[in-house]
Design goal:
With 136 residues, the chain is of the alpha+beta class. Helices cover 68% and strands 17% of the residues. It is built from 2 helices and 4 strands; from the N terminus they run αββββα. The chain has a two-stranded antiparallel sheet. It has a two-stranded antiparallel sheet with strand order 3-4. The chain is rod-shaped.
C-alpha cells in the first residue's frame, strides 16, 4: 500500500472512529437522562408515602399541565414491567425495582464511558499519526 493510500485509510478510520465517539456521547446523555428520571421517580415515591388517602392532589399530565385527583390508595401502584405489561406493586416493590434500574443504568454508564475513553485514546493516536505523515 502506498503512503498516500495508507494516509487516506487512516483518515477514513479516524472519521469512522470519530463518528462512533459522537454516538457514544449521545448514548451517555441518554443514560444520564434515564438515571435522572428514575431519581425523580424515586423521590416521588418517597413523597407518595407521606400523602394520606382521600387527599386531593395534582396529577401531572406533562408539559406543565395537571389534573385534580384524589388518592384512593397510596400503596398500590400500577407498574409497566416491559412490553406494556402492567402489574400491581406496592411502593416498596416499586422502589426496589427503581433502585435496580438505577444500578443497571449506572453500570451501563460506566462501561460506555470506558469504551468512549478507549476510542478517544485511539482517535488521538490516529490524529498524531495522520499529522506526522502530512509533515513528511
Amino acid at each position: 500500500m502506498s503512503q498516500k493510500e495508507e494516509q487516506k485509510s487512516k483518515i477514513i478510520e479516524f472519521q469512522v472512529l470519530n463518528q462512533k465517539v459522537q454516538q457514544l456521547q449521545e448514548h451517555l446523555q441518554s443514560i444520564n437522562n434515564n438515571i435522572q428520571e428514575l431519581q425523580i421517580l424515586r423521590n416521588s415515591l418517597d413523597e407518595l408515602e407521606n400523602i394520606k388517602e382521600n387527599q386531593d392532589i395534582l396529577i401531572p399530565l406533562g408539559q406543565g399541565i395537571f389534573v385534580k385527583g384524589i388518592i384512593k390508595n397510596n400503596n398500590e401502584l400500577i407498574t409497566n414491567v416491559g412490553l406494556n405489561i402492567m402489574v400491581e406493586k406496592d411502593v416498596k416493590e416499586t422502589k426496589d425495582m427503581v433502585k435496580v434500574n438505577i444500578l443497571n443504568l449506572s453500570k451501563m454508564l460506566e462501561r460506555t464511558e470506558e469504551e468512549m475513553n478507549r476510542n478517544i485514546e485511539e482517535l488521538q493516536k490516529l490524529q498524531k499519526e495522520i499529522t506526522e505523515k502530512e509533515k513528511q
